[in-house]
């Protein structure tokens, strides 16, 4: 089955000899660059382009065309090559469009030499860019994968080549433009499409247009936070960035950085230390694509998440196969009267069990090898994570300072599988939050603590968990950009909320009673209404001057106590419409307590991301669907780190007069 990739997603390559087919609505230049382990091009001889179409293991076309077939032989690439970047550029000085935003989205397909499609990618969300890195073939742990990149450059080929560390980028770009111009002068009408035959050695021009050039549906599930979320991507800031991204479940996620500039090259990826002969490469933090170290680490965490999901799926599949084979062989023995009893039957059974044990042992050895590599990578990555991605016990929090801008993601906890419980993958969700959070105060269902805690203790832990997440959200936003409101109808969360009150992190005391609930919901509902109307009518400047346009988090404790029908309707409205304009919801509730409302609240629960205050098996990955054990990100017992962080936030607020 073909993998229809979205930006940031990767897919393993099962064959070494490939064709990369390009289809566009207007003639484009197709080329490729070979890069080392650091993602840099050592010299112009590592670039395949119309003026020099062949490099070892790679061949591209000699002229601009609407269709291309690039030939790749991964086994023939030099040992020093770790990445192959497939690039597209618009011819300069022609009569065609000046940017990719003025034409239909280009479509690329990675196929085997027999024409069987392995993966495809439609390069969407381009605007003023005239050059783009469309795909990346990269080597990871000895195996090759393809990743959809879609990184555009308004500065054209020069900016793209300079971004990959090539000295003399402007001169090489000029030689490519000259070769393309000469090719246009020699070109004749494109021949009819040849849909069959052809290997990697012969490159033929496809007809203009291409069936998928104008936007093939890439409806594969995107990574977000994880997914699913989705896959690795970037984030912007402010309510406008939230509005620019589709809500969860509405389609592929945009991985474009809203504030990204194409004129400044990204930070180079850190160089991996040399490995011992015959040993896997040593892991290095930030060994992933990205515009910044934060983005590289985010993508690397998601890559580890996917690798663990898939390698575990392969192991479980092998074990299931071994069990199935054992059952078949035992059935065969029992179905034959001659071998049903006696020494022959015993020997046949022992042989079948030995085969089953051998298959399981082989599968386990492969799993242990992959898990050991992931454990080593996780240890390296964990120590390099910024505060927003790090655990509360990380040393990075000891040197915490209020940031100047919001990070792209936030850590909500850890995920692990039973095959290796000490291998924990950070659960990162994109900011701004696209879904509200539901901290479940009900009895744990599938975790190790299920049934061990009474309802009162679960409620206390749930409130502590919500406060820890709220403090983290406050800490990773710049001063004045994030406000926290609390609805606590019965005042049951007083002790847990004390740190927020002591340091002035709450703009007003927690709302109590029916009147307090009504006032807070009415104020936030009004804000959502006004901002939505202003955005839709293009009149943001007409918003009332006293309206706070920063991000808001509403914590609701002990729902549905203290909520009448009107308040419930307003809460559902905030859950559905609030994230698009910067109003986010965090509910601390037991779903069983809300049964009295009947199915009217089912859409509310479905719209929220359920997390638990204790380990619980309730989250699934977007690739295989394993049941992952989620562990919340909590402050260690006896640690004062949360109060220290809140003190820093409070001091920054005072300095700015907030």
From TrEMBL:
InterPro entries: Stress/Tellurium_Resist (IPR051324), TerD (IPR003325). Transmembrane segments: none annotated. Residues 228-239 have a biased composition (Gly residues). This is TerD domain-containing protein. Residues 189-287 are annotated as: Disordered. Pfam families: TerD. Belongs to the CAPAB/TerDEXZ family. PANTHER family: CAMP-BINDING PROTEIN 1-RELATED (PTHR32097), GENERAL STRESS PROTEIN 16U (PTHR32097:SF4). Gene3D superfamilies: sav2460 like domains (2.60.60.30). It comes from the Bacteria. Residues 202-227, 240-252 have a biased composition (Low complexity). Residues 68-162 form the TerD domain. It comes from Streptomyces cinnamoneus. Residues 265-277 have a biased composition (Pro residues).
């Amino acid at each position: 089955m073909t993998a229809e990739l979205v930006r940031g997603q990767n897919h393993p390559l099962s064959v070494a000899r490939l064709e990369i087919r390009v289809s566009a609505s207007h003639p484009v230049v197709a080329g490729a660059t070979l890069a080392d382990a650091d993602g840099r091009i050592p010299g112009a001889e590592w670039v395949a382009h119309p003026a020099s179409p062949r490099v070892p293991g790679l061949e591209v076309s000699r002229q601009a065309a609407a269709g291309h077939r690039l030939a790749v032989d991964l086994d023939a690439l030099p040992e020093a090559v770790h990445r192959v970047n497939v690039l597209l550029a618009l011819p300069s000085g022609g009569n065609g469009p000046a940017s990719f935003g003025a034409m239909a989205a280009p479509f690329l397909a990675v196929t085997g030499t027999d024409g069987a499609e392995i993966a495809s990618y439609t390069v969407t969300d381009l605007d003023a860019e005239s050059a783009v890195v469309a795909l990346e073939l990269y080597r990871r742990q000895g195996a090759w994968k393809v990743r959809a990149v879609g990184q555009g450059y308004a500065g054209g080929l020069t900016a793209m080549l300079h971004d990959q560390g090539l000295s003399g980028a402007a001169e090489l770009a000029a030689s490519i433009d000259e070769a393309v111009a000469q090719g246009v002068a020699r070109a004749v009408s494109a021949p009819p499409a040849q849909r069959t035959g052809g290997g990697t050695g012969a490159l033929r021009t496809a007809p203009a247009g291409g069936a998928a050039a104008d936007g093939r549906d890439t409806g594969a599930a995107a990574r977000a936070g994880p997914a699913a979320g989705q896959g690795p991507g970037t984030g912007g800031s402010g309510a406008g960035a939230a509005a620019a991204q589709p809500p969860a479940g509405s389609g592929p996620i945009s991985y474009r950085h809203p504030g990204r500039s194409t004129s400044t090259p990204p930070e180079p990826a850190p160089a991996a230390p040399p490995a011992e002969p015959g040993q896997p490469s040593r892991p290095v933090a930030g060994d992933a694509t990205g515009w910044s170290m934060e983005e590289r680490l985010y993508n690397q965490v998601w890559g580890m998440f996917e690798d663990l999901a898939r390698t575990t799926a392969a192991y479980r599949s092998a074990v299931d196969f071994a069990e199935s084979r054992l059952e078949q062989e035992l059935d065969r023995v029992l179905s034959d009267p001659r071998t049903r009893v006696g020494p022959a039957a015993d020997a046949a059974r022992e042989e079948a069990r030995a085969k089953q044990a051998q298959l399981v042992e082989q599968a386990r050895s492969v799993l242990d090898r992959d898990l050991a590599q992931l454990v080593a990578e996780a240890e390296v990555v964990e120590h390099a994570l910024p505060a927003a991605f790090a655990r509360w016990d990380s040393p990075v929090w000891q040197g915490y300072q209020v940031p100047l801008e919001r990070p792209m993601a936030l850590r909500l906890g850890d995920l692990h599988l039973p095959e290796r419980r000490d291998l924990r993958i950070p659960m990162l969700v994109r900011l701004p939050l696209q879904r509200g959070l539901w901290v479940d105060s009900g009895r744990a269902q599938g975790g190790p603590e299920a049934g061990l805690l009474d309802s009162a203790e679960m409620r206390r832990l749930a409130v502590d968990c919500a406060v820890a997440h709220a403090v983290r959200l406050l800490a990773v936003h710049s001063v004045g950009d994030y406000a926290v409101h609390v609805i606590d109808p019965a005042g049951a969360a007083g002790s847990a909320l004390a740190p927020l009150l002591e340091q002035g992190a709450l703009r007003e005391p927690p709302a109590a009673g029916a009147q307090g609930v009504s006032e807070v919901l009415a104020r936030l509902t009004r804000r959502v209404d006004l901002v939505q109307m202003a955005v839709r009518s293009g009149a943001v400047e007409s918003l009332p001057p006293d309206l706070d346009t920063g991000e808001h988090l509403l914590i609701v404790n002990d729902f549905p106590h203290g909520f009448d029908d009107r308040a419930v309707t307003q809460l559902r409205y905030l859950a559905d419409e609030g994230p698009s304009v910067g109003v986010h919801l965090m509910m601390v509730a037991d779903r069983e307590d809300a049964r009295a409302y009947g199915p009217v609240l089912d859409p509310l629960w479905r719209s929220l991301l359920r997390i638990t205050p204790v380990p619980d098996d309730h989250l699934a990955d977007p690739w295989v669907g394993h049941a992952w054990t989620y562990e919340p990100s909590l402050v260690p017992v006896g640690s004062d780190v949360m109060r220290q962080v809140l003190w820093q936030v409070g001091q920054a607020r005072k300095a700015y007069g907030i």
